[in-house]
Amino acid sequence: MTRIAIAGFQHETNTFSAVPTRYEDFLIADSWPPLLEGEAVLAGTAGMNLPIAGFAAAAAAQRDLTLIPILWCAAEPAGRVQDAAFDRIAARILAGLKAAGPIDALYLDLHGAMVTESAEDGEGLLLERLRAHLGPAVPIVVSLDLHANITPAMVALADQIAIFRTYPHLDMAATGARCLSLLLALLAGHRPAKAFRQAPYLIPLSAQFTGAAPFEGLYARLSGIAAAGESADIALGFTAADIPDTGPSVVAYAPSATRAAAIADDLMAVILAIEGTVDAGLLSPGDAVARAMAERGGAGPVVLADVQDNPGGGASSDSTGLLAALVDAGAQGAAVAVMADPRMAARAHAAGVGAVIEGPLGGASGAPYQAPFVGRFQVERLGDGCCAFTGAMYGGAIGMLGPSAVLRVVDPVAEVRILVSSNRIQALDRAIFTHLGIDPAACRILALKSTVHYRADFDPIAALTLNVAAPGGMPCDLTALPYRRLRPGVRLGPLGPPHLPQP
Q: How many CB atoms neighbour CB 33 within 10 A?
């Protein structure tokens, strides 16, 4: 009987955020389940679009294979993971492996962009500790997020890496299932050679959508690598991490080093060739709102993506630039989601439906560009924030917004509603609106704090989608970021200026 241990430890770290990621953050149920251990790993993720769930489902169809679930956890993106949190969770995974006894292989569901207080490569550090225990002979296969900042250590310590191929990440479970096939081949004795390449330019997350050119075509090339023993994957990188290895990269595997290098070089040549076609353009809040208001008779709402205040990238989810632009322009039929403001949510619940409350909303991060929106708001709806997601990416998961409210701005002209939550959560599923009684398809304008993930559930109803450059904690104008650790010479965006180390 083949015994495969499985574990997951996910975090996407925004090193520009001043909010540290604590151990307690991995215990919270938000978009995904809380920390799970033992058999709860399987029961608590079953049926979800998660890599570890896909791996487990594929393994269930295999004979003579036993899974040993150790631990799985994830925390909402934020600042660096505290060393105490990392060490505690890594120690629990290691202790679980030791308690499991002899195993034949290990599968890890990781992100690929974790940075701790003292380590720029959280995944590499975890792999180092686990490899030291398991030794070089036990195969380790790792799944990573499309936004991974892959390091040489990750490639060296894992026998094989598989990466999501869609953004929005519709194939997370499928990637986990793919990892089982890779692991079974390794167990059969097929140890491929590796090749790793890093691109010389960064790509803002707002430009990484894989549902259209140029990345749709780039990722389509991966399915054409079908020869026995060959595989490759591409990560587009997470630009809010200030580390030397930030940016796009390619991993390739083949029976020979020469063939692996050729596959990696061919894919990198395409990444270089498309650089000039990557659209990283953003509209100002005023221009975006004006264009949305000018759209008449569209078959659905205009979606304004507040891409730089995406909590899924570590932003505070309480910036007010786009909200202010909507009210100033007198926008009609507009809804904003999700504004994370636990203080205002509590005030709304205390006042009750129908009450009018006034004061500051949002803008509590303390960033120099940030200010609250001060006004009067009527409480239209209240909820406990327990939201059953239904979209293609998150369907089956339960979002935990905490005590929430729908507030309508009291204004003589503008008709703007704001979904206010207690917890940070990305606006990536229509259920965030419907569970509070709003039909998003009936709105004229939807202002969503998300970068690309919203497209999976909102593109089918949108008449037009615009990316907006309202200030936020996940800048997509990379020239504005104060990089200090980034490798010298890498271009700050497609055809952008080279990074010059700070004196």
A: 21
What is residue 460's predicted lDDT score, i.e. its pLDDT?
97
Cis omega before residue 482 (within 30°)?
no
pLDDT in tens, 102-161: 999 999 999 999 999 999 999 999 999 999 999 999 999 999 999 999 999 999 999 999
Q: 344-365: buried (b, 16+ CB within 10 Å) or exposed (e) per residue?
A: bbebbbebeeeeebeeebbbbb
| Adjacent-strand bridge partners of 109 | 8, 143
Determine contact, residues 400/325, Cβ cutoff 8 Å.
no
CB of 42 within 8 A of CB of 167?
no
Comparing CA positions, the residue from 268, 210, 220, 267 lying closest to residue 459 is 210
Question: Is residue 444 a contact partner of residue 334, using CB atoms and an 8 Å limit?
Answer: yes
In angstroms, the Cα distances linking 489 to 79, 464, 475, 486, 497 are 25, 37, 20, 9, 8
Residue 399's beta-bridge partner residues? 387
| Residue 466 amino acid letter | L
Q: Looking at the chain, how many residues does it have?
A: 503
Phi and psi angles of residue 489, each rounded to the nearest 5 degrees, phi first:
90, -20
Nearest to 147 by CA among 169, 170, 131, 132: 169
Whether residue 142 contacts residue 182, with contact meaning beta carbons closer than 8 Å, is answered with: no
Contact 357, 376 (CB under 8 A): yes
Average pLDDT over residues 294-298: 79
Q: How far apart are CA 14 and CA 278, in angstroms?
A: 23
- Taken in order 469, 363, 435, 357, the sign of the CA dihedral is negative
Q: Cβ contacts of residue 33 below 8 Å, gap of 6+?
A: 44, 45, 72, 397
How far is it, in rounded angstroms, from Cα 445 to Cα 462? Answer: 9
pTM of this prediction?
0.96
- Report the distance separating Cα 79 and Cα 426, nearest Å: 16
Number of DSSP helices (H) and strands (E) in the chain, helices first: 13, 19
d(CA 80, CA 436): 33
Instruction: Tell me whether residue 226 is exposed, middle or buried, using C-beta atoms within 10 angstroms of its C-beta: 0 to 12, 13 to 18, 19 or more.
Output: exposed
**Phi then psi dihedrals of residue 183, to 5 deg:** -70, -40
Q: How far apart are CA 168 and CA 210, in angstroms?
A: 7
Q: CA 420, CA 447: separation in Å to the nearest integer?
A: 13
User: Residue 204: CA atoms inside 13 Å, Cβ hemisphere, count?
Assistant: 26
